[in-house]
Amino acid sequence: MYSPSAAGSADNTTAGSRAFRYEVTGLRQNSESDKNGYAVRKSGSVFFTVPYSRMNEFMRRITRLGGKIVSIVPITVGSGHGDPQPPAPVAVAATPEPAPAPAAVPAPAASHEHIFPTNVPVNTYKPKNPFVGKVISNEPLVREGGEGIVQHLTFNLSGGDLRYLEGQSIGIIPPGTDKNGKPNKLRLYSIASTQHGDLLDDKTVSLCVRQLVYTNDAGERVEGVCSTFLCNVQPGDDVVITGPVGKEMLLPVDPTANIIMMGTGTGIAPFRAFLWRMFKENNPEYQFKGLAWLFFGVAYSGNVLYKDDLEKMQAENPDHCRITYAISREQQTAQGGKMYIQERIKENADELWALVQQPNTHVYICGLRGMEPGIDEGMSAAASKYGVNWADYQKQMRKEERWHVETY
Ligand SMILES: Cc1cc2nc3c(=O)[nH]c(=O)nc-3n(C[C@H](O)[C@H](O)[C@H](O)COP(=O)(O)OP(=O)(O)OC[C@H]3O[C@@H](n4cnc5c(N)ncnc54)[C@H](O)[C@@H]3O)c2cc1C
Q1: What is the pLDDT of residue 358?
Q2: How far is CA 363 from CA 9, 235, 248, 360, in A?
Q3: What 3-state class would DSSP assign to 383?
Q4: DSSP classification of residue 177
Q5: Which residues are CB-contacts of 170 (< 8 A; sequence separation ≥ 6)?
Q6: DSSP strand E in 14-122: where?
Q7: Residue-wise DSSP of 270-311
Q8: Which backbone phi and psi does 13 adopt, to 5 degrees?
Q9: Which residues does 16 contact at the CB level (< 8 Å), separation at least 6?
Q10: Chain centroid to CA 154
Q11: 38, 4 Cβ separation under 8 angstroms
């Protein structure tokens, strides 16, 4: 059960330590809650002081107790007498009818080299000197009722020097020539495996590839060159690989960071790598203790890629892993509209807003170009409930390298 001292209100007296003042509603006062030692005010609010190191734990407890976090205000624990300095209201002004609020300024984050891994490998193999890997497997990911062809491919990297990190991409050069008779150019694909590879031997890389198919202006069916090549390769075939590239989608090294992932379709690829690293591998340097929350948008439930694995991870790590689907052609909003990812964001606005105000929360967006405006719409709805301008807040998050986007 919840106890304020476990959350830090009683023991947060160390001079100079960082702490946050939480206002929570929805916690009932009764004989049972009395044992937990918090007093519900007439307004329905309860206030807690929580040290930085216990924010995630606190959030989970509040969620379990059915409470709603309505504001988080950083405080400086000062002189060693245990009295917090007057709080500097920076983040939210939580009132039922939002009054004009001060401009939101997220609490300060650490500098780049403290947040992300150093020595990120980049362009080990360039188009003029690529690595030739062999296909190990090529498995379908779309299940009954789903549309299109999406494959999970694994390549053997033995004999080369291609190392990569979660969140990076590789280039694939398809065989053949383009319409001008020139050798085909490379296409980028987000890496779907962890740095250790699906076989955990540091010798493979995996991709999640959708075959591009469309009808051109003349009414002809056109198949994408590289995606069609990849979706049809067989074990033992050669694949020409470049890279790795990309530093935008790297995971923070802090295992207590919160990772909010918003993906559509094959945009799941880097998130599969993140989640495997968090929950399927046992990396001594990365024992994940934050909250990983995946918002995954697809057209049909048959298109929920890696469904069984995702749901198993969620079931096995209920305090750390959360998955929210938006299945546009099958689920509906309360108003009867199609369930796109931004609708799920709006539904979870309060919690998301409280999370993004934590200085160790990172948001990642990956998938179809065009998904960003919807996400901004959802986040704007969340922020405006508290009188905050989302565009300003997002700008600040980008500056702090906590807002990561890779769309294509
Ligand atoms: C950083 C990054 C990561 C990526 N990660 C992935 C990934 O993980 N998985 C994945 O499947 N893809 C991913 N892609 C996309 C991938 O790089 C290719 O663009 C995609 O596979 C299509 O390549 P292709 O050779 O099959 O198509 P191409 O033969 O190159 O055809 C593409 C071209 O077709 C035309 N076209 C496309 N759709 C239509 C349409 N509806 N109507 C008319 N014309 C159209 C456009 O001119 C387009 O440029 C990623 C892209 C980037 C930049």
Answers
A1: 94
A2: 28, 36, 11, 10
A3: helix
A4: B
A5: 162, 164, 188, 189, 191, 205, 207, 241, 242, 243, 244, 245
A6: 18-25, 45-51, 68-76
A7: HHHHHHIIIIIS--TT----S-EEEEEEESSGGG-TTHHHHH
A8: -120, 5
A9: 76, 77, 78
A10: 23
A11: yes
For the ranges 9-13, 25-29, 115-119, 124-128, the lowest mean pLDDT is seen at 9-13
- pLDDT, one tens digit per residue, over 225-251 is 999 999 999 999 999 999 999 999 999
Please report the beta strands in 41-195, taking only residues with DSSP state E, as ranges in sequence order: 45-51, 68-76, 131-140, 150-156, 169-173, 187-190
CA–centroid distance, 212 to ligand 1, in Å, is 6
Q: What is the mean pLDDT of residues 16-21?
A: 64
Atom of ligand 1 nearest to the CA of 269: 8
Residues with catalytic function: 189-190, 366, 406, 408
* Residue whose structure tokens are 């901004």: 376
Written as six digits, the tokens of 321 are 């892993």
Torsion of CA 278, 283, 289, 290, to 10 degrees: -40
38 CA to middle of ligand 1, Å? Answer: 55
Q: How many helices (H) and strands (E) does the chain have?
A: 11, 16
Helical (H) or strand (E) element with 392? helix 390-399
Residue 26 — left, alpha, or beta (φ > 0 → left; ψ -120 to 50 → alpha)? left
Query: Measured in angstroms, how far is the CA atom of residue 166 from the centroid of ligand 1?
Result: 21
406 CB under 6 A from ligand 1? yes
Tokens of 370: 């065009």
Exposed, middle or buried, 215 (CB in 10 Å: 0-12/13-18/19+)? exposed
Query: Using 50, 70 and 90 to split pLDDT, how confident is the model at 338?
Result: very high
Question: Does residue 66 contact residue 26 with C-beta atoms inside 8 Å?
Answer: yes
Please enumerate, as own/partner, the contacts of 178-182 that have beta carbons within 8 Å and a separation of 24 or more.
Answer: 178/225
Please indicate whether residue 141, judged by its CB atom, sits closer than 6 Å to ligand 1: no
d(CA 16, CA 382): 32
Q: Which of 152, 151, 149, 143 is nearest to 302 (CA)?
A: 143
The confidence band for 14, taking pLDDT boundaries of 50, 70 and 90, is very low
